[in-house]
Amino acid sequence: MERKFTKYLKEWRNHVNRKPLMVRGARQVGKTYIIREFGETYFENIVVVNFDETPQIKQAFEGNNDVDVIIKELESFYELEIKCGETLLFFDEIQSCPKAIVSLRYFYEKKPDLHVITAGSLLDHTLNEFPYSMPVGRVEFAYMHPMSFSEFLLAMGQKKSYELISSYELDEKISLLIHDKLMDLLRLYVVVGGMPEAVDVYQKTGSLLEVAKVQESIVKSLEYDFAKYGSSAQQRIMGKLLRYVPKTIGQKFKYVNFDQQLRSHQIKNALELLNLSRILHIVYTTNSVSIPLKTGVNEKTFKTVFLDIGLVSHILNLNVLDLKEMVLNNEGNIAEQIVAQEIIASQLPYTDREIFYWVREKQNASSEIDYLITAGNKVMPVEVKAGKTGSLKSLNVFMAEKKMNMALRFNADLPSVAMSEMNIVLKDKSVKTKFKLISLPLYLSGEIDRIISS
Q1: What is the pLDDT of residues 318-358, one digit of tens each?
Q2: Is this prediction's pTM over 0.90?
Q3: Which domains, from first to last, does the chain contain?
Q4: CB–CB of 31/94 below 8 Å?
Q5: End-to-end CA distance of the chain
Q6: Cβ neighbour number for residue 298 with a 10 Å cutoff
Q7: β-strand 87-92 against 115-120: which pairing, if any?
Q8: Contact 283/302 with Cβ under 8 angstroms?
Q9: Which of 83, 126, 273, 306 stands 20 to 30 A from 204 (CA)?
Q10: Is the bond leading into 415 cis (omega within 30 degrees of zero)?
């Protein structure tokens, strides 16, 4: 399956100031597969050092900072030659060997021509509690996510549809015929999702039942990983959160609604562990409308989005046979998950993109903007609607209060650009809002940066 991440790996391979690359991402998003495929395609040979499968190989890194000795040890153990410029040296599950992470500094300093990539499903946990001196400035990071909708289209053989959305400009028209086709494909993506194994089994079998089996296996493997970090009490909370978060996407997370018997700090710690595992993303509120949005963050108020839309649908039992019918009670959740997941996946691979939202909680006058993002050098408010229509009252309040002139809306309708005008009451005064509203169909949410920049 074609992944955009491969393009970044090719650029890294040829970069003059290349450093050892650490690939971060949740379990089963395709890290190992893509790196192996890249090594087999673009190098004479690839040496894969998996610290989980061959734990004895850790001995080569114990108290040894001489990369020439390490390389000789690896060559003898694997019976493979490691040559600068010709070999890709791949350290998989590197979180199991912290000394190997330390050695990356010396690979960079003493063997800069050797291509070294590392990966690990629980790498973020190791880096967060790293017991040694990190090789700061001697490594670079890249982030992998589940397959985006555009990558899903390629996997389904929908090359023309892929080309349409990946080159779409605001002044172009999309016919109703093509729009309906893309919305049908998006509904299929909602059920299958972007986990590569689920996409692969659907591409081969066309069976949503087989997809559901894979998805349940993935959920179980995520739960199995909980035993590798956190206390037994935290593991139980994480297991419960794993099944709970998909039900509350788009809603303010309230500890009391999750479990009244637990203390808030227990739930918060479990959420942070899941966030480190990239199983979910915590979306904090911010009052800032300038870059960086993080400066105005309120960490006490947040909502969550999940790793993958297909896993959300599986946990919510939305594996419906008629893909045109979505459970009405979950349409808003599904739409917000799609947009958040696409925004996160559309980032440049070397950036770990954060998204935020805005809320004003006042009795009888609460307002909320689903997401605040940076697109290019602009801060953009983003409204998400599952259908073709919906109230924009909160958006108008926000635009008037923050004095902004452009906003984004994602919904199920055709693309449009229009000036929005409305009279609202703000601080007991009548105010007229006027701003440019860019409305895009949900299937274009992964193209935000490119479309706004143009």
Answers
A1: 855 554 555 444 577 899 999 999 999 998 899 887 899 99
A2: yes
A3: 5-143 (3.40.50.300), 149-354 (no CATH), 359-453 (no CATH)
A4: no
A5: 29
A6: 12
A7: parallel
A8: yes
A9: 306
A10: no
